[in-house]
Design goal:
Oligomer: single chain
Largest sheet: none
Radius of gyration: 15 Å
Shape: globular
Strand content: under 5%
Structural class: mainly alpha
Length: about 120
């Protein structure tokens, strides 16, 4: 199961590199999630990540760190459902108004998290 966590870490890093090179993709992706109740797709994905991370934590080298990521994914997934589409849309609107430099800086966060996840697995 730790191989799945390593694969997810690699995916996080790959996506971050794409976002660093082409930050405009973020704005168009956010436009997709603003329509209807598509934001719930993001919540479901986060909850799935939470399950994967929590189940795989015991197979990883740094169990508590992978479990902590699982708990964070769980909280973020539940938060999306609790906030609802309208509140999430206002957050997305704020994020879309930010500069491309800001988005590039924000892309460094999942890049670092992906590296930490791979290290912890």
């Amino acid at each position: 199961m730790d191989k799945v966590i390593i694969a997810l870490g690699i995916v996080f890093i790959a996506i971050s590199i794409v976002l660093l090179l082409k930050p405009g993709i973020v704005k168009s992706l956010m436009e997709f999630f603003k329509k209807g109740k598509r934001i719930y797709i993001s919540g479901i994905v986060r909850l799935a990540f939470a399950v994967i991370f929590l189940l795989a934590a015991y197979d990883c080298d740094i169990t508590w760190l992978i479990a902590a990521f699982g708990i964070l994914f769980l909280i973020s997934g539940i938060s999306i459902f609790m906030l609802g589409p309208e509140k999430c849309k206002s957050i997305i609107d704020w994020f879309q108004k930010q500069s491309l430099l800001f988005i590039r800086i924000m892309a460094i966060i999942p890049l670092a998290l992906g590296a930490v996840i791979i290290y912890a697995a």
